Amino acid sequence: GPARQLSGNAFWLEDWRRGIRRHSSRCEQVLCPGPLMRTLLVAGLLWPAIKAARQPTVVVAGATGTVGRELVRILRRQDVPTIALGRDVLRAKRILGINACCREVDLGDAESIKAALPVDEPFRLFVATPNGPDQFQLEKTLFDVCAATNRCEHAVKVSTATPVLEARVGPFDAHTRAEALLADSLSHTILRPSLYAQTVFSEHGPLGLPSGAGDGQHVLADAPVAYVSAVDVAAVAARALVSDDVSRNAKMLDLTGPAATTISEVVQQAGGNVVSCTSTLPADFLRVLATQLSKVSHDTERALGFEPTAASDFFERELRRRALDCGKNGAIAYNGRAVYTANYRSSLPFDEVRRKSRGLGLRCREDYEELGVPKYAPSRPEDMFPDRWLGWDDYLGVRRPYDEGRRVAQTLGISSELRWYTYA
């Protein structure tokens, strides 16, 4: 036939394509496997490599905290499968995004934790629980359950600063006991961060400045502290959690900023004024925070591969935003006419902005100043990431009930919940 006129490899290629159908059934099965057999053969050869390259799921306990929320965002940007544990799933989704995998868990209940963990597959654990009387018991229960599964490859725990542990003040006891327990049960990395730069401007808590443009009182106003950004701490944790070889991860890291900073100096440079004040915190704890957190560690830079965020830069940016929020010095709190451009499209005429504002019930300048800058206005570029949209219920910086949020959406022309989340 025509095939016999071909020579060498061409003959065998033609014979292979025809499936060697003239041969015996045994020869057909061995020399010319079908599509299913070829797929299984390739899968069998590549399975070890596929298994080695598969990224284990990361379980985040404390996903709505200062560091946990930043970690979830980093992992989601890298397409790492993530499970966020928390008491309130709806609140977690408002903070982390509607597509985040959130599971309701009581860290004091072992069965609840076990039901939330991945089934029959390895995983890695991140733990950052709030300081409190039950902190050690909650972390102990979590560590015991994860160790019992024999599937937890690595655990990253956020502890407190080393000077606090050495001075045995503040929340040292719970962290010391949890670190010792973790060292005996799981492969681990312990992060000991300095004070977070984000907590300086928190509206709640003993270390937060009062609301406004930055003027006020602070217990550490004149204390030099090597503040560290929570985003940098989350980035260090993420690198340890996605490491190919967790045995090479550091056991303990002291995380600080690149330099010590005083709040009063930064606020004065921005035209504000902050003075020291008293606090309800224990005196020994405050003394350690004010005198022993100025030492700079290079562990953050070595873990990240670049210099961490300077606290002074973060403070200056936050002060500018807060001055705009409160309309200080006669400034328009809504940043003129550009405010809605981040929420809808690249530019909007002023009349359209005014129509949308009135549809939301904003009638005068006092309404704008009361609400402040929307969460995703151009004056807050650090928040303008697609996965940071929380939805229309708080894009103005205020919480709205679902029914009111739905009316707002319909006023804006968003007719369905699907389009609502498409916008968000």
TrEMBL record:
Q: Which SUPFAM superfamilies match?
A: NAD(P)-binding Rossmann-fold domains (SSF51735)
Could you tell me the superkingdom of the organism this chain comes from?
Answer: Eukaryota
Cite the Gene3D superfamilies for this sequence: NAD(P)-binding Rossmann-like Domain
Its signal peptide is none
Query: What sequence ranges are listed for the domain NAD(P)-binding?
Result: 62-241
Task: List the PANTHER family.
Answer: PRESTALK A DIFFERENTIATION PROTEIN A (PTHR43162:SF1), PTHR43162
| The name this protein goes by in its record | NAD(P)-binding domain-containing protein
What's the source species for this entry?
Pelagomonas calceolata
